[in-house]
């Protein structure tokens, strides 16, 4: 780092000697000016920052000690070298009390080597101060960043120090990396590098901001409102990233908030704004409205629409009425297209329907059928637009129908309908406490009759189906999260860690920890 030096002395020959005896650039220094007295020096120093001040003590108008006092108030970390023709104890004592004087040189005995030695001491002290300041700023920034991260998770946070700009109106934006155009199949490392580049660009462009990466595909930026111009600025930044950095981002932007505590809600608005991309297209900026239906709970009418359409489809599908089944699907697609449901709800509904559709795939053996359903559920999660989802659902419906030549006697259609709804119910609730009795109760059957009909209609055993759903969910969480193994087991529907470990090893042929490690190694290999 280059430090700036200013020289003050009322004797021209002394000033010349001080300024000409040092190779400033070679020593990592820059001589930025000189003056004949303290007042003239102060006027110049007020216009540009100074790191090292070399000043005579006794000068007309304003002496060196008064100049030092004044400059210290401007630049507390400045280092001062005093120069005088007198060896005066009182001057030396007063200079030391100022706290910024590094050393004292006598003009009659001063040599260039003496000045150079003291300049190098000044540089060392300035370096130490810079490190301390940087560490202090880093600590404060880390504390602030960690606090905001906790706010995003809904925790209550008490901040010891809050920058002034965070007390003004704020906006939260969520940046989701959709694709890295330089690589058709960008790995996790490449995505992370791209996110780091995006974060650096955003933080340099928005000086009053704080940003951090929250996942392999997402970063969060908190910025000042900038008198309402921030949305346009964020859109320009998004376009720059796509055109110049070849990285496509979908951005959700919150409305302005007026306190740091409101970041929790603003983050939700911005995150929900990303849902709009599912319906209206990726690689755009979307504004999250406070009044959006994503925030305000839906009316019960929306839930009734879904339940009625699911019932209608299941009955027609069980009775092998193609046109009515297709019409029910079209009705659901229309509800999806009208944004009656959020993107997440649409995906959950599609998973429920695909389970019903695949329940009639009678050409597969038990394990193949379960694995087929699990594969389809995973494929649906990865679909990123509504039009792709509708195309996918239509394809699956027609392929299963045609390949199985679906036809059911009227007297069997009621049981088929009930079991289809039961499979949908199981798929939606396997992560909670689910039993054969609760599934039977859902479709108003006795426990034994339900078990018999479940096997007859679906060609699956109830418990096998539930276990495979739970194991598959656990495998997905082991790949995608850092949660503890026993938490994953619990969240996947297992009520005992011991039972989870036993079944996982039986089905996957390794422990959950071994599976997680193997998946991480495969991921690293894929990125090399």
Describe what this molecule looks like in 3D.
Helix content is 58%, strand content 13%. The two termini are 37 Å apart. The chain folds into 3 domains: 3-129, Response regulator (Rossmann fold), CATH 3.40.50; 164-288, Alpha-Beta Plaits (2-Layer Sandwich); 300-460, no CATH class. A 5-stranded parallel sheet has the order 2-1-3-4-5, with helices on both faces. Strands 7-8-6-9-10 form a 5-stranded mixed sheet. It has 528 residues and is α/β, with parallel strands linked by helices. InterPro entries: CheY-like_superfamily (IPR011006), Homeodomain-like_sf (IPR009057), HTH_AraC (IPR018060), HTH_AraC-typ_CS (IPR018062), Sig_transdc_resp-reg_receiver (IPR001789). Keywords: DNA-binding, Phosphoprotein, Transcription, Transcription regulation. It holds the Pfam family Response_reg. The modification 4-aspartylphosphate is found at residue 56.
Give a short synopsis of this structure.
The chain is of the alpha/beta class. 58% of the residues lie in helices and 13% in strands.
């Amino acid at each position: 780092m280059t430090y700036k030096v200013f020289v003050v002395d009322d004797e021209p020959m002394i000033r010349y000697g001080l300024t000409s005896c040092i190779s400033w650039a070679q020593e990592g220094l820059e001589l930025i000016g000189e003056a004949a007295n303290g007042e003239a020096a102060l006027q110049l120093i007020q216009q540009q920052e100074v790191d090292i001040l070399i000043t005579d003590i006794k000068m007309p108008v304003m002496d060196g000690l008064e100049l030092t006092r004044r400059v210290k108030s401007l630049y507390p970390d400045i280092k001062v070298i005093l120069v005088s023709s007198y060896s005066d104890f009182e001057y030396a004592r007063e200079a030391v009390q100022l706290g910024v004087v590094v050393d004292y040189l006598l003009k009659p005995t001063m040599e260039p080597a003496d000045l150079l030695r003291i300049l190098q001491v000044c540089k060392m002290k300035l370096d130490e101060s810079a490190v301390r300041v940087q560490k202090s700023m880093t600590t404060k920034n880390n504390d602030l960043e960690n606090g905001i991260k906790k706010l995003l998770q809904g925790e209550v946070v008490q901040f010891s120090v809050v920058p002034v700009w965070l007390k003004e109106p704020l906006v939260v934006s969520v940046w989701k990396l959709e694709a890295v155009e330089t690589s058709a199949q960008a790995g996790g490392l490449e995505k992370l590098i791209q996110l780091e580049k995006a974060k650096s660009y955003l933080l340099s462009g928005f000086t009053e901001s704080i940003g951090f990466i929250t996942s392999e595909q997402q970063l969060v930026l908190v910025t000042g409102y900038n008198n309402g111009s921030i949305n346009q600025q964020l859109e320009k930044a998004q376009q720059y990233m796509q055109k110049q950095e070849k990285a496509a981002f979908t951005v959700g932007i919150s409305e302005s908030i007026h306190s740091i505590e409101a970041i929790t809600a603003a983050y939700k608005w911005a995150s929900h704004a990303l849902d709009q991309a599912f319906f209206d297209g990726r690689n755009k900026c979307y504004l999250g409205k406070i009044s959006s239906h994503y925030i305000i709970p839906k009316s019960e009418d929306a839930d009734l629409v879904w339940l009625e359409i699911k019932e209608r489809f299941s009955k027609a599908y069980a009775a092998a009425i193609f046109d009515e089944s297709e019409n029910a699907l079209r009705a659901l697609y229309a509800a999806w297209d009208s944004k009656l449901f959020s993107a997440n709800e649409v995906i959950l509904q599609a998973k429920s329907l695909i389970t019903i559709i695949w329940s009639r795939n009678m050409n597969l053996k038990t394990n193949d059928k379960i694995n087929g359903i699990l594969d389809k559920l995973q494929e649906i999660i990865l679909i990123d637009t509504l039009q792709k989802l509708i195309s996918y659902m239509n394809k699956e419906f027609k392929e299963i129908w045609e390949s199985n030549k679906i036809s059911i006697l009227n007297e069997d259609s009621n049981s088929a309908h009930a079991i289809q709804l039961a499979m949908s119910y199981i798929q939606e609730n396997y992560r909670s406490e689910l039993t054969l009795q609760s599934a039977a109760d859902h479709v108003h059957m006795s426990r034994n009759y339900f078990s018999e009909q479940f096997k007859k209609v679906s060609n699956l055993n109830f418990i096998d189906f539930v276990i495979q759903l739970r194991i598959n969910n656990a495998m997905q969480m082991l790949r995608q999260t850092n949660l503890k193994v026993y938490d994953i087991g619990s969240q996947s529907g297992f009520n005992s860690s011991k039972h989870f470990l036993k079944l996982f090893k039986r089905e996957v042929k390794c422990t959950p920890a071994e599976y997680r490690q193997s998946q991480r190694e495969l991921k690293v290999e894929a990125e090399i």
